[in-house]
Automatic annotation (TrEMBL):
It comes from the Bacteria. The lineage of its organism: Bacteria, Pseudomonadati, Pseudomonadota, Gammaproteobacteria, Enterobacterales. This is Uncharacterized protein.
Length: 21
């Protein structure tokens, strides 16, 4: 499974949203 990859993407998106706002 590539759960680690999904987790990395989720963190990147979360940081992007928090950083954008």
């Amino acid at each position: 499974m590539k759960v680690n990859l999904l987790k990395d993407i989720a963190e990147f998106v979360n940081e992007s949203i928090l950083g954008g706002v």
